[in-house]
Structures are given as C-alpha cells and as structure tokens.
Amino acid sequence: MRDSRRPAPRNSRNPPGPHYMSDASSPATTTAPDMLELAALLCSRVCHDLISPVGAIVNGLEVLDDDPKPEDREFALDLIRKSAKTASARLQFCRLAFGAAGSSGAQIDLGDAQTMARGHIEDGKCTITWNLPRLLLPKNRVKLLLNMLVVAQHTIPRGGTLTIDPIGEGEAMSFRITAAGHNARLPQNIAELLSGERGPAADAHAIQPYYTRLLAQACGLTVTLAPEGAAIIVTAS
C-alpha cells in the first residue's frame, strides 16, 4: 500500500497490461499484414512495453520539480531508479527479441539470452528455470526462444515458473517451455495465431504471437501451445 504521506504521481494512468481481444471485438482475418504494417505493429508493441516505466520516470521527476519534503524526495528517487532499471531491461530484451540483433546469419550466445530474459520477465511474480546449455545458436532460433517466453508468460497472468528445456542439441536445438502457476490458462486465440489457423488481428497485442510463428517458420519449426495437466506447454519442434 502506498504511504499516504507520499504525493500521488501526476498523470499516473498507465496503460493496461497485455491482453488479447475476444472474437466479439476482433473478428478473424485471413490477410497477413504487409511488411510496413508488420513493422508498425511490432514498433507499437515495443512502445506499449516501454511507456509504463518511462511514464513512471516522468512522474518521479515531476515530484522532484515540486521541491518535496525529504521523505517524498526519496520516494521519487526510488521510483525513478526502479523504473529506469525496468525500462533498460525491457529495451535490451526487445532489441534481442524483435530487433536485427546482428547481421544476417549472426549467432547469439544463449547466456546473453538468459540474462535478457531474466531481466525482462522475472519481476517477483514470475521466475525462470533455465535448463539450456550455454552455446551459440543462429539468431532466429534465439529470437524464437525469447518470443516463446513472452507467449508462455501470458499463460500464467498471476505469476509462476517458466521452465525451459532443450529439444535436441547443437545448432538444430529447439525448445520446450513449461508454464506452471496458479490458474494457468490458454489465452484466447493465441494457439490459432501460432499455428496459422487464425490470421492476426490488426493490433499490437496479437502481432507478437504472429511474429513468433514467422520466426518458427524461418527456422523450419512449428510452435504449439497446449495444456498438460495443470501446466501450459509451449513447444517448438
């Protein structure tokens, strides 16, 4: 609970967290976005992830501008520190998951991917169990892994554990992610977006699983999302 002595940050209405539109508000489409639309939707997705911590930094600076009491000043500085750390982690993750991440044919260290994933996803509610060896993999496979983690995180909205296991070995390695948490569930339409049974809705939320499918296709793989007992399994094979 926020200390009542601390000023409420101005303009603090943050956007809602990631969600997926229902059939009633987002009818199925069969036309894939062209290159310009895909780029625009991915940029919108990145901006959505960054606007909350960046907005919190602005709020903290506004509090400091008001020449606050010492305790309120410390609160504002703490808000700025935490939000800057969050924004930096999200930027680094998005650069690897959605960006070019080196030249065509480049390889990425799975150790670096692990660091980015933990910085972006582990937030006190969600933890990662990383069972992958440290080696270099083609960049599209690493990008696929990070995007699979985002998909898996959405299946445990109340938090839990994401366990990542390898399938195969070497440069042909693929991945299995087990999402276990309270009330783990299949987000509406995401399995269809991953499999290609449903076209992407024209919004920045649906574009991420659609982009995950494109990455899997580039690697010669298929991503599936299915329940297994109380857990949800995301597999690329």
UniProtKB/TrEMBL annotation:
UniProt KW Ribosomal protein keyword: no
Region (Disordered): 1-28
Alphabetic keyword roster: Transferase
Limits of the Histidine phosphotransferase ChpT C-terminal domain: 111-230
Keyword Transferase recorded: yes
Listed InterPro entries: ChpT_C (IPR018762), HATPase_C_sf (IPR036890)
Transmembrane portions of the chain: none
Domain of life, per lineage: Bacteria
MF terms in GO: transferase activity
Matches recorded under Pfam families: HPTransfase
Protein name: Histidine phosphotransferase
Species of the source: Bradyrhizobium niftali
